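INFO batch 0412 | record 1 of 1 | parsing
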Amino acid sequence: MTQISESLDLSTDKALDRDCTTLSRHVLQQLQSFGPNAQDLSALMNRIALAGKLVARRLSRAGLMEGVLGFTGEVNVQGESVKKMDVYANEVFISVFKQSGLVCRLASEEMEKPYYIPENCPIGRYTLLYDPIDGSSNTDNNLSLGSIFAIRQQEGEDADGEAKDLLTNGRKQLAAGYILYGPSTMLVYSIGTGVHSFILDPSLGEFILCQENIKMPDHAATYSVNDGNFWQWDESFREYIRYVHRTEGYSSRYSGAMVSDIHRILLQGGVFLYPGTLQKPEGKLRLLYETAPLAFLIEQAGGVATTGTMDILDVIPTKLHQRTPLIIGSKENVAKVMSFIKTGN
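INFO prediction complete | emitting tokens
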């Protein structure tokens, strides 16, 4: 009887310890510090979590509220039609970080130039870069969506308001991650000490630790790509797709929301491809808001992210909205794709 009681007590202790490991607490534990920099990062992650909660709440009631679904009729700086949820999520991140006192600038793929918060700038030396809604074409269909984020420290005074210090490689990121809005709302992040996932517990209103130090498999027979663009790719990518089509065991998984596809690959392995096309060799994905943050995560989990010619984290942008091709995932899967690129067929 005593052994059963001790076993139950141990199980209860573990459950309680997990429930008490909130996102902000976890950041401090990872940094093993309660110093000013650690406190700043913990507070920043807490604000990102709040933005995620607000977006998740809006999405959960999307079909019941006016002004949530559909397009605004406007076009963003990327030349893309803007969904109403794009606008809402972008405004959520701005509003949340206005109150932080830590962030001087926010840069988003939805805004041509960074958004400055003058009252924060004297002390707020951090910049948030983000894609407020990834996969917004899924919004009206009740499918998975995501938000992608990265935190950088401001370098210099940025007196001309051009944020030129952001035009540096992805290894300058202090933290990166994403929020996945699916059956549950998950937040996955890294501050350079591994990759960790959290699930939003609605009863507590907190992101609670789900899994620490996630490591990707080195290989999996899963590939994720929009093969509707097949005839617009370079022959090397077409030949890779022919290879997986004729090789037994491979499965295609593509959701239309990159965060969802990357999350599957993070946990189960495989490769995600978004090549450039013959007309647009630079690709579609934005370096600062999408590919660099995801590359930071995947590398921390033991994976690889490349443009096809160099590591994503080594790319130095020349403009805020620079685009890159992307090959990202398990080491062996990415190496296989690269073998087709190197041979040119």
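INFO post-check: Helices lie at 2-19, 23-31, 36-60, 84-98, 235-246, 258-268, 287-300, 331-343.
INFO record closed
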